[in-house]
Amino acid sequence: LQIYAVTPIPENQEVLQRDGIPNNIKSFYKVNHIWRFRYDRPFHKGTKDKENEFKSLWVERTTLILVQSLPGISRWFEVEKREVVEMSPLENAIEVLENKNQQLRTLISQCQTRQMQNINPLTMCLNGVIDAAVNGGVARYQE
């Protein structure tokens, strides 16, 4: 028995991408009428480079497609289809950077619309991007 934390994949991606749509509406579409979920399992293919582990870091992405959408009234939902795809280190790096850019856009938008009184989350996120001391940041992906 294996238990994974899954991420919902919204059907209406265009609603989530548009500017000017309130965050509460985007939040609704992120977790309602969901048919697909995914989880990632990182692994090293080939020899692991001790100086830069991102060179050989692949990701096995599993997508689960349900028979019915969530949320629902049933206690369990049958998985109709399971798709497994391997993502290369380059594809993984691109996705990580795109996700970080989206996170920054969301924080900036919240600061501009005054939804966030404290700007510390934005400051910490910017510091992590500009001075990435933990994993080497973008420079490791460039190698």
Automatic annotation (TrEMBL):
<dbReference type="InterPro" id="IPR026791">
    <property type="entry name" value="DOCK"/>
</dbReference>
<dbReference type="InterPro" id="IPR043162">
    <property type="entry name" value="DOCK_C_lobe_C"/>
</dbReference>
<dbReference type="Pfam" id="PF20422">
    <property type="entry name" value="DHR-2_Lobe_B"/>
</dbReference>
<comment type="similarity">
    <text>Belongs to the DOCK family.</text>
</comment>
<dbReference type="GO" id="GO:0031267">
    <property type="term" value="F:small GTPase binding"/>
</dbReference>
<dbReference type="GO" id="GO:0005737">
    <property type="term" value="C:cytoplasm"/>
</dbReference>
<dbReference type="GO" id="GO:0060326">
    <property type="term" value="P:cell chemotaxis"/>
</dbReference>
<keyword id="KW-0175">Coiled coil</keyword>
<protein>
    <submittedName>
        <fullName>DOCK4 protein</fullName>
    </submittedName>
</protein>
<dbReference type="GO" id="GO:0005886">
    <property type="term" value="C:plasma membrane"/>
</dbReference>
<dbReference type="InterPro" id="IPR027357">
    <property type="entry name" value="DOCKER_dom"/>
</dbReference>
<dbReference type="GO" id="GO:0005085">
    <property type="term" value="F:guanyl-nucleotide exchange factor activity"/>
</dbReference>
<feature type="domain" description="DOCKER">
    <location>
        <begin position="1"/>
        <end position="143"/>
    </location>
</feature>
<dbReference type="GO" id="GO:0007264">
    <property type="term" value="P:small GTPase-mediated signal transduction"/>
</dbReference>
<dbReference type="InterPro" id="IPR046770">
    <property type="entry name" value="DOCKER_Lobe_B"/>
</dbReference>
<feature type="coiled-coil region">
    <location>
        <begin position="87"/>
        <end position="114"/>
    </location>
</feature>
